[in-house]
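Internal tracking record. Fields below are filled automatically when a chain is submitted to the structure queue. Please do not edit lines marked as system-generated. If the sequence contains nonstandard residues, flag them in the REMARKS field before resubmitting.
Queue: standard
Priority: normal
Entity type: single polypeptide chain
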Amino acid sequence: MIGVFFMIMAKVLPDVQPVRFTTRTMDNGLTVIIAEDHSAPTVAVQVWYKVGSRNETYNQTGMAHMTEHMMFKGSANVQGRYSEIIDQLGGTDNAFTDRDVTVYHCVVPADAVEVPLMLEADRMVNLVFTEFPSERDVVMEERRWRTDNSPFGTAWENLWATAYMVHPYRHPVIGWGSVIPNFNLDDLRRFYETYYRPDNAILVIAGDVKTDEVFELVKKYFGKIPRPSAPVPPVVAKEPPQNGERRTTVYKEGFISIYLSAYHIPEATNPDIPALDVLATLLGGGKSSRLYKKIVQEQELATSVWAYTDESVDPGLMVIGAILQQGKDPKDVEKAVEEEILRIKEGGVAPEELEKAARQALADFVYEQESASGTAFSLGNAAAIQNDPDYINKYPQKVASVTTEDVVEMARKYLVQENRSVVTLLPKAPENIAEYIKMMEEGQKKEFKY
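SYSTEM-GENERATED OUTPUT FOLLOWS
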């Protein structure tokens, strides 16, 4: 068995090259990660704030996302808006908010790297909060189209609210629809001042730069920002163990049926995560996965199926989902999922299947690092979620070390009924089909940046 194990490792890890980077921590607590990549004359600049829906109370849900929107409205010492300035440089920019982080990212020509550093430093402490009421309306409109009018958005929101009873992961990142209209500017300022600070941020620079030179620019703009005296408020809520299956059924106007199930798994730093990644890939990672072959191809129950691990600062979820063929019963999809999980628990996994799943689990992870921007995202995520940017170099070895026994153990340990939450979304016929189709077509045309 030892010989087979090392043969699999060699096949899984053929050309994974380590990412070389430098990490420095400034006196004010800002973590700076710099990765030189001279393959193209561009540079990615990203700021990862360790704040997301995880840090919100019930009356604040969506506040992190609302702050993200306001970050593009200008800062005290900059004339013009962030995106307009980056666009004039020939660059691109955007941002996103998630459960654990809010991330601002751009790519600019290498000779213009000083500009986004100046912009990011100024809006870290000097946000002006212009156009707050109108931007709050924009966020409400975004919620209407991405959640309230979306079958998948509705199902997704219900899944997290079903799986978590105590932890703020149960809140939607965009916020509850009843909370967003009640945001006020004073609360938003306090949220910004609490979490937007150098000791709660990670600055990642990757691309055509020289480490020492670009770090001098970082010191020029970020070095003068003081570290607040008060600590960042900790998240004290802990989700208790789930001791029984939870189910939610949602009826939604439209024509789509959706099946979602979620199993609690540990936090991203737990050593079980690589094996859980391989298990999820084996079950629902693409067209060669067990669930796709059974549910989509053989039984023709669904048009798509997937499985993945949502890795978080605090314990997360493994999610299995499917969009059903019209007229098919979600109970049949669930039965097929349960059968495949049982097959793994009782029958194990063949070495060649394990090798294929491990390679696939690594594929997206490695491919993302082929660009400077992708490398920056990988480094930032590892630093913010795993608290170790070098995790991106350790992870391939961890995945390659996963054994058949590990995968079986993960299925038996976590994929059990009492640890499962299930959401089924069933279609409700629209009162006016023509108007419904028109509304959905209009929604597909809407674009929400940030």
